[in-house]
Amino acid sequence: MKKLALIPLVAACLSMPLAAQTADPVAEVEAQGDRTARVSQQIWDWAELGYLENRSSGLLQDELQSEGFQVEAGIADIPTAFLAEWGEGGPIIAILAEYDALPGISQTAAPTREQSEHGAGHACGHNLFAGGSLTAAIAVKRWLEKTGTPGRIRLYGTPAEEGGSGKVYMTRAGLFDDVDIALHWHAADENSAAARTSLANRSAKFRFRGISAHAAGAPERGRSALDGVEAMNMMVNMMREHTSMDTRIHYVITEGGSAPNVIPDFAEVFYYVRHSDAAEVQALWTRLEAAAKGAAMGTGTEVEWEVIHGNNPLLVNETLARAMDRKLRSLGGIEYTSEERAWAEEISKSFGENAEPLEEAGKVQPYAKTLGYGSTDVGDVSWATPTVGVRTATWVPGTSAHSWQAVAASGHSIGHKGAQLAAKALTLMAAELYTNEELRKAARAEFDAARGEDYEYVSLLGDRDPPLDYRE
């Protein structure tokens, strides 16, 4: 730790009761550095996809049970979801953990493009999310135990963030209703505790069915399901011209036939629709469905669709965000060893004009209220209980999420360092929340005002069951 960081760190501790100052929350995290690296690396090696993270979820549960946590597995009808709790009385502080990988992108831990044979990879750093959150939960438990501070610490194992909306089903099941504050973090190429909101989104697989025939010998007998998909895509692409600035629409054709001389009787396209306002996502979705119906009518095919996931936008709580920003500033950024810097320099070459100075990893970005154009199922949690997050430089500055460079750093010591920094920030934040009733009250007041008196939770998923096979 930098010497200059000690002054704000001591100042933050002065707000705690004397008993709570007898143990150092940061030291509890530092004592677990090997655990953070070991667990993060093992989950990186497995790279399990959403709702299929059996080994990753099991590893986290085993680690928590060995520390005395009571673990309930299979919550919200999701086999790889779990809730682990330790303590009694006092506030309930939750820490979220993710552990699903992304399909179609893999990479070794090398600083040059070196695709692995796995076929999936932690391009969003969820292996680090899991390892860092695990360490934070255990550090908080040990701190509560040593100080005798009343309170309960929970770790929520939340699968399938990438397109599966695991936390939405958990929120819908009421699993966060008794939580006082929820904490989360994410891998990034910078250190920031900005009040960063996100886009709401909904996805679905649109499945067209037609009539198969010989494309040359009997074309008049066929009705191409692929024509239905392409007609829908054409109309949606024209629709983009008439949407508001925050709109994001993207798709992939997941099935379109096998041979050009066989008119395909089945085709499928997978759509995402995003906007900063959940109501606008619903309005855009109505237009998307109309395009699908029109495409089917015009091509003589039939269409049906299955909603796969849907997330509400993050509800920012600036009371908590500013407190988290103070914690992160007390800790500082990431310092590379000479070996890590050489590795990072090699990665940085692949960014070309988008390369950032490596020194950015050692800085904490200015506090601001910003809109992030990604989406996350943490958004639904943030409408159930006051929620705050932090981002740390687990990746080389300039790295984009969902890239091979992110996969590489997520399996490297640079990533492990970032996870440790996040664990320290979460643990410091939790320690203050347990002991600072005024902070908890202020956060709740802001939360209640933002939701409004008549607020009722609405899931963008409707009442569907978790799509446990969406990655199979």
UniProtKB/TrEMBL annotation:
<dbReference type="GO" id="GO:0016805">
    <property type="term" value="F:dipeptidase activity"/>
</dbReference>
<feature type="domain" description="Peptidase M20 dimerisation">
    <location>
        <begin position="203"/>
        <end position="294"/>
    </location>
</feature>
<dbReference type="Pfam" id="PF07687">
    <property type="entry name" value="M20_dimer"/>
</dbReference>
<dbReference type="InterPro" id="IPR036264">
    <property type="entry name" value="Bact_exopeptidase_dim_dom"/>
</dbReference>
<dbReference type="InterPro" id="IPR052030">
    <property type="entry name" value="Peptidase_M20/M20A_hydrolases"/>
</dbReference>
<feature type="signal peptide">
    <location>
        <begin position="1"/>
        <end position="22"/>
    </location>
</feature>
<dbReference type="InterPro" id="IPR017145">
    <property type="entry name" value="Aminobenzoyl-glu_utiliz_pB"/>
</dbReference>
<dbReference type="InterPro" id="IPR017439">
    <property type="entry name" value="Amidohydrolase"/>
</dbReference>
<dbReference type="Pfam" id="PF01546">
    <property type="entry name" value="Peptidase_M20"/>
</dbReference>
<keyword id="KW-0378">Hydrolase</keyword>
<dbReference type="GO" id="GO:0046657">
    <property type="term" value="P:folic acid catabolic process"/>
</dbReference>
<keyword id="KW-0732">Signal</keyword>
<dbReference type="InterPro" id="IPR002933">
    <property type="entry name" value="Peptidase_M20"/>
</dbReference>
<dbReference type="GO" id="GO:0071713">
    <property type="term" value="F:para-aminobenzoyl-glutamate hydrolase activity"/>
</dbReference>
<dbReference type="GO" id="GO:0005737">
    <property type="term" value="C:cytoplasm"/>
</dbReference>
<dbReference type="InterPro" id="IPR011650">
    <property type="entry name" value="Peptidase_M20_dimer"/>
</dbReference>
<protein>
    <submittedName>
        <fullName>Aminobenzoyl-glutamate utilization protein B</fullName>
    </submittedName>
</protein>
